[in-house]
Amino acid sequence: MENTQDRPLPRIILLLSGKRKCGKDFLADALLKRLGTEEAQIIRISEPIKRHWADWMKLDLGELLGDGAYKERYRKEMIEWSDARRQEDYGVFCRAACTTIDRPICIVSDIRRKTDVRYFREMFGPERIRTVRIEASEAIRAERGWRFQTGVDDVQSECDLDDYGSWDLLMRNEHADGVEGLLERLRKLVSS
Fold first, then answer.
1. Is 173 annotated for ligand binding?
2. pLDDT at site 2
């Protein structure tokens, strides 16, 4: 089976989900280093959203893709705009992000909605999909720089998967000394 770009489909697509500052990007980057860039890649659903936002608002895309205050300044507006686009086509940003898939293992570091999971299952088949929920307490997330923001932390983009119950792996990412164990669990999941 081939995808729409006539490239072989990935063997495994690892969907990472979790609240802001739970460590999704950190673990995705660390797993990529462990697997190697010949075997794996990271895609982000937020990248096409931020690319459009940067073009439209004449902003620095690199800063929007980062993890700093610059991105946080525009987060609420980007969420509102992207939610409106998803009402028209739930897979619009997933589809755009998938255009760069070209490795056997694809790590999607920012699954936020049930429709994101639905898109990947429908597009690539459920046998290729592995779902992971990464959790950390509010206290730990606050130590990492998280602060509750109305219109960000209480909307669908942060809360839609709170009641999703079909995770292949549920992990707590709270202690630096536990990262190796978490990475080994992720590696085993993509090897299965």
1. yes
2. 39
Q: pLDDT at residue 115 above 90?
A: yes
Q: Is 24 annotated as a binding residue?
A: yes
Domains and CATH numbers, the chain: 12-191 (3.40.50.300)
Kindly report the number of other CB atoms within 10 A of residue 76's CB atom.
15
Instruction: Quote the tokens at residue 18.
Output: 């979790």
Q: Give the 3-state secondary structure of 9-27.
A: CCCEEEEEECCCCCCHHHH
Phi, then psi, of 15 in degrees rounded to 5: -100, 115
pLDDT at 4: 46
160: closest CA among 90, 113, 116, 109? Answer: 113
33 assigned to a ligand binding site: no
Question: Looking at residues 85-96, what average pLDDT do you find?
Answer: 92
What average pLDDT does the segment 108-118 reach? 95
Read off the amino acid at residue 2.
E
Q: What 8-state DSSP symbol labels residue 8?
A: B
